[in-house]
């Protein structure tokens, strides 16, 4: 991946942090070179995970024609009904999303595995406004 292409993409997004741009270039290059099928991105709230994932996805599609999709852990929160039941039977904190046990890990693994097999998959979307998955 050309650093100039990545810099242009970053400029279009209003990103001027050289470290961010270099990290994006490194990951894009290694994903392509090694034919990586899954990339995990971690970081604190507001650290740029979604921006990094979106830009990496765009780079891989435009520069190397690699079909891909992004998944967000937030979209795999258990439904409000499920969390309400857990709050009533296990611990009240289950009502609040984010605590351990509030993600539907099996659903996330199923979606990821089906995508890797090339299947067409409906990816859940969590609506933070309604505090529920659509």
Describe the structure.
The chain has 2 domains: 3-63; 73-133, no CATH class. The chain contains 5 helices and 2 strands, in the order αααααββ. The protein has helices spanning 3-12, 18-34, 49-63, 80-89, 105-116; strands spanning 126-127, 132-133. Strands 1-2 form a two-stranded antiparallel ribbon. β1 and β2 (132-133) form a beta hairpin. The longest helix has 17 residues, at 18-34. The N and C termini lie far apart (36 Å). The mean pLDDT is 91.
List the helices and strands and how they pair.
Layout: H1 3-12, H2 18-34, H3 49-63, H4 80-89, H5 105-116, E1 126-127, E2 132-133
Antiparallel strand pairs: 1-2
Helix pairs in contact: 1-2, 2-3
Protein name: Phosphoribulokinase/uridine kinase domain-containing protein
InterPro entries: P-loop_NTPase
Organism: marine metagenome
Condensed summary:
The protein has 134 residues and is mainly alpha-helical. The protein has five helices and two strands, in the order αααααββ.
List keywords for this structure.
48% helix, two-stranded antiparallel sheet, 2 strands, elongated, 2 domains, 134 residues, 3% strand, Phosphoribulokinase/uridine kinase domain-containing protein, P-loop_NTPase, mainly alpha
In round numbers, the mean pLDDT is 91
> Count of helical segments?
5
What letter string, H or E per element, gives the SSE order? HHHHHEE
* Number of structurally distinct domains: 2
Question: End-to-end span in angstroms?
Answer: 36 Å
Which structural class do the helices and strands define? mainly alpha
Helix content: 40-55%
The radius of gyration computed from the alpha-carbon positions, rounded to a whole number of angstroms, is: 17 Å
Q: What is the makeup of the main sheet?
A: 2 strands, antiparallel
Shape: elongated
Low-confidence stretches: none
Spatially, the strands of the biggest sheet line up as: 1-2
Number of strands: 2
Strand content: under 5%
């Amino acid at each position: 991946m050309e650093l100039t292409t990545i810099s242009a993409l970053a400029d279009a997004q209003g990103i001027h942090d050289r470290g961010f741009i270099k990290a994006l270039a490194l990951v894009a290059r290694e994903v392509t070179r090694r034919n990586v099928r899954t990339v995990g991105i971690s970081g604190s709230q507001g650290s740029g995970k979604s921006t990094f994932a979106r830009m990496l996805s765009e780079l891989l599609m435009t520069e190397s024609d690699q079909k891909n999709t992004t998944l967000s852990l937030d979209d795999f929160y258990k439904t409000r009904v499920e969390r309400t039941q857990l709050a009533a039977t296990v611990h009240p904190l289950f009502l609040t999303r984010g605590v351990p046990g509030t993600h539907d890990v099996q659903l996330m693994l199923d979606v990821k595995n089906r995508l890797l097999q090339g299947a067409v998959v409906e990816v859940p979307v969590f609506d933070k406004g309604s505090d529920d998955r659509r």
